Every structure is written in C-alpha cells, then in structure tokens.
Amino acid sequence: MLTNYISAAMHKANYELLEDGTFYSEIPECPGVWASALTLEACREELQDALEGWIILGLRLGHTLPIIDGIDLNFSKEAA
C-alpha cells in the first residue's frame, strides 16, 4: 500500500524548468513536499525522498495524510 501511495503521489507532481536552468517540482496534494535540482531526474529523485520523509514524519506525528487515488494511509481508530 505504501509503494502504491508513493507512486500515485509522484504521478501528481508538477515539474518546472526555472530560468537558471534548474528544475523545481512539488506535489500539490502534499503540502511542503518539493524539490529542486540540476536535472529533471535528480529533481524527481529528490522529490520522492522528500515525499517519503514527509509520509514517515506525518504518520509518526499522527497527522492526517491526504487520500491519493483512493489510497488512505491514515490510521483509523475504528479499525483498531
């Protein structure tokens, strides 16, 4: 489920070539998840690293993560 969530979130990423020739990317559904790098591939890798850290921290702190493409990583107290 986690792998599918990461993949779905990465498919929602926006990429932009900046005036200085570097790349910037973000995932609008995941506030604060962004990256920048010299190449598009490096930017994508940095973005995925940022996303993974954001997910781990969010789960650890009990934050509600967005449901992406029907994938819900949030802990349900009713399911416990």
Task: Characterise the protein shown here.
The structure is a single chain. This protein is an alpha+beta fold and 80 residues long. The chain contains two helices and three strands; from the N terminus they run αβββα. Strands 1-2-3 form a three-stranded antiparallel beta sheet, with helices on one face. It is elongated, with a radius of gyration of 14 Å.
Helix/strand-derived class?
A: alpha+beta
Fraction of residues in helix: 40-55%
Uncertain segments are: none
Beta-sheet strand percentage?
A: 15-25%
Biggest sheet character:
3 strands, antiparallel
Number of helices: 2
Structure summarized in a few sentences:
The protein is an alpha+beta fold. The chain is built from 2 helices and 3 strands; from the N terminus they run αβββα.
SSE topology:
Layout: H1 2-11, E1 14-17, E2 23-26, E3 34-37, H2 40-61
Antiparallel strand pairs: 1-2, 2-3
Descriptive keywords:
alpha+beta; 40% helix; 2 helices; 80 residues
